[in-house]
Specification:
Layout: E1 17-23, E2 27-34, E3 39-43, E4 48-55, E5 57-62, E6 65-70, E7 74-77, E8 83-87, E9 93-100
Antiparallel strand pairs: 1-2, 2-9, 3-8, 4-7, 4-9, 5-6, 5-8
Length: 103
């Protein structure tokens, strides 16, 4: 058993501030932080994702729909859906990303 915290969690392999809080073959839990005005560019992933907003507010562009989300909101995104995030608030946008891997 190992306790993971933001200080000792491995970084994600892209420019956004993200930490891998848990990972195995079935699931991955990522803590993302987007600074004011920061954008996570549109992308697709080969797995389902659940986003849970911890702090702040932002805009999720999912295909051609826009969802404005704030703290304590969650949304699920299916495999094959293009999505991007933008921090539209004044404070950091902190999101837990739960990736449901296929096995």
């Amino acid at each position: 058993m190992k306790i993971i915290n933001l200080e000792n969690a491995p970084k994600v392999p892209f420019k956004i501030e993200g930490r891998i809080m848990f990972a195995n073959e079935q699931a991955e839990l990522i803590h993302l932080t987007l600074r004011k005005g920061e954008i996570l560019e549109k992308h697709d992933n080969p797995f389902d994702v659940i986003f849970y907003v911890l702090e702040g507010s932002g805009k999720l562009l999912l295909e051609d729909e826009v969802f404005n989300l704030s703290a304590n909101c969650s949304i699920s995104v299916k495999t094959g859906s293009n999505r991007s995030w933008e921090n539209t608030g004044e404070a950091d946008l902190k999101i837990l990303v739960y990736k449901i891997m296929k096995h």
